[in-house]
Amino acid sequence: MRYSERDEWLEADGLGGFASGTAAGVRTRRYHALLLTATTPPTGRMVLVNGFDAWFENAAGLAALTSQRYEPGVVHPDGATRIMEFSVDPWPRWTFSLADGTTIEHEIVARHGAPVVALSWRVLNGSRGMLSVRPFFSGLDGGQGRRPRHHTARWKAG
Model-level pTM greater than 0.85? Predict the structure, then answer.
């Protein structure tokens, strides 16, 4: 992986909730989540969305845009290997480079004053395709471990 699992980012919503993770996109801590809301600030928090899997499919094939860590230390799929750039300014932004030269930008933004996190992907250059995203829903108290539920959504990109 080009970017480290030790380099972390956090997007606060101003209400005690946040989205957080690593530059490599792999969740390594219990509180790494896509949507963690403050139910009774400052202590009560609930993880509504742990994270997601995303992949892009075009004429060149299927390419993962995410990676997850499983025991015993297995990272799958290989989306983290496609990260070409990462920045936290003004919010977390990843640029992925696919084997066929397609470049995709992904951003995560927390809305200040509301328990809302927005995700965006856009093809910067290269071929059109289909983006699929599978969020991991949970509804757990502040990062307690339990398998999240899965749902897959698809959008045409390009």
Answer: no
